[in-house]
Amino acid sequence: MQIPFVSSPRSSLGVEWELQLVSRDSRQLTSGATELLRELSPDGEHPKAKHELLESTIEVITGVCSTVSEATADLAGTIAQLRPLAEARGLAMMCAGTHPTTDWATQTISPSPRYAKLVEDMQWLARQLQIFGVHVHVGVRSPDKAIPIVNALSAYIPHFLALSASSPYWIGHDTGLASSRSKVFENLPTAGLPYQLAGWPEFEAYMETLISTGTIGSIKEVWWDIRPHPTYGTVELRICDGLPTLFEIGMVAALSQCLVDTLDREIDKGYTLPTPKGWVVRENKWRAARHGMDAEIIREDETTQPVRDALLELAHELRPAAERLGCVEELARVQEVVEHGASYQRQRAVAAASGGDLHAVVDSLIGEFEAERPQPLPVGRGTAPGAAR
Predict the structure, then answer these.
(1) What HEC string does 6-42 produce?
(2) One-letter-per-residue 3-state SS of 266-305
(3) Average pLDDT of the chain?
(4) Which of 11, 22, 262 is closest to 132 using CA atoms?
(5) Best exposed site among 11, 145, 278, 311 by fewest CB in 10 Å?
(6) Cα angle vertex 156, ends 368, 185, to 5°?
(7) Nearest to 144 by CA among 201, 223, 226
(8) What is the 3-state composition of the chain as percent helix, strand, coil, each rounded to the nearest 5?
(9) Distance (Å, rounded) from C-alpha 121 to C-alpha 117?
(10) pTM, entire model
């Protein structure tokens, strides 16, 4: 089976941001996507705002961008169109990997044959997918580069997950995890860590087997944390939890673009990109999902390093790429989030300061989304469960 790879200009950028629709009165996830999208575009088909699995979700999508600032401005433009339509219905928009209190069993599935089939095939596994993420596409010029880059990027899964972790709560309870979303999503049989393949021919053969045996209908149903996207000619990083602010979207987009661009150039220089050990990748993802910024991740030499230090080192190493790509400011935000707290930490601090009121957490997420940047950590009345080791 041959899978055409539509090569992209080097380091082109695209971002997908899954937004929650929340009632301002109840603070619960609330259906409204179909009406909003129909009002946004008469046929309900808008190029930059789309349905997701739940009627309480709208996915905002950029066009093909060259820079991080262009991508964030693109997202902001679509949100500006959506905001008055949502407000007229008493809805707010926000984003986090999970909603702190809403029960997935109360949610309506979007009216799409694709999602109906997903629920029919996956049953309970699909019905509980009340989760929200950020996906970043970075262009590469050749399928021969795509698989080595995917393999090499898997070493950075804990970096992206710790930085973006925003799902400590599930249906009103603290899970003790920084990212419960990542564990819920990987329950799907074709989601989770990418398989380490030898090259594009092996990827084609694997996809052919999945399709011919009825495991999937198309390669779009392989939802790896990092995957090649042949139609767009990109490597797609799907590991991140939903991010509450444009500030953090720009940060993760910059980290993604700089890292892929650097790996791409290493191939051009004739270097063979490293493929990390599978067990190390698996263990490090778990450590980041469980402990977030407090994770001690395993390096290839089988020593450990605080993920905070690893993130700061990575941002420093990628500075030349950021200068080349025009995203120095956005990449520098890594240090700010490391020092002042990822979303899961901010949410737990709000809960602690409000005596465990998760409605206050929802209000803080709405506030951050509208302010477009993280709010300072409040001074709490104690440490929330699972906040740190």
Answers:
(1) CCCCCCCEEEEEEEEEEECCCCCECCCHHHHHHHHCC
(2) HHHCCCCCCCCCHHHHHHHHHHHHHHHHHCEEECCCCCEE
(3) 95
(4) 22
(5) 278
(6) 65
(7) 201
(8) 50, 15, 35
(9) 6
(10) 0.96
Distance in angstroms (rounded) separating the CA atoms of residues 308 and 163: 9
Q: Would you call 20 helix, strand, or coil by DSSP?
A: strand
In angstroms, the CA 241 to CA 132 distance is: 7
Calculate the dihedral angle through the C-alpha atoms of 301, 305, 311, 312, rounding to the nearest 10 degrees. Answer: -110
Q: What pLDDT does residue 379 have?
A: 59
- Three-class SS state of 325: helix
DSSP label at 242? P
**Span 4-32, mean pLDDT?**
96
Give the span between the Cα atoms of 356 and 319, in whole angstroms: 40
The domain segmentation of the chain, as residue ranges, is 13-371
| Per-position b or e across 153-163, b if 16+ CB within 10 A of its CB | bbbbbbbbbbb
CA 365/CA 371 separation, integer angstroms: 10
pLDDT, position 44: 67
- pLDDT on residue 248: 98
Single-letter amino acid code for the residue at 285:
K
Cα 230 off chain centre by: 19
The encoded tokens of residue 373 equal 């940047």
Region of 275 (left: φ > 0; alpha: ψ -120 to 50; beta: rest) is: beta
Q: 389 pLDDT band (50/70/90 cuts)?
A: very low
- Residue pair 246/211 in contact (Cβ under 8 Å)? The answer is no
* Sequence letter at residue 169: Y
CA angle 173, 176, 178 (to 5 degrees): 105
DSSP 77: H
Q: Write b or e for each residue in 260-299: b if 16 or more Cβ atoms lie within 10 A of its Cβ, otherwise e.
A: bbbbbebbeeeeebebbeeebbeebbbbbbbbbbbbbbbe
In Å, what is the CA distance from 356 to each residue of 30, 57, 122, 340?
Answer: 23, 26, 34, 21
Q: What per-residue confidence (pLDDT) applies to 9?
A: 82
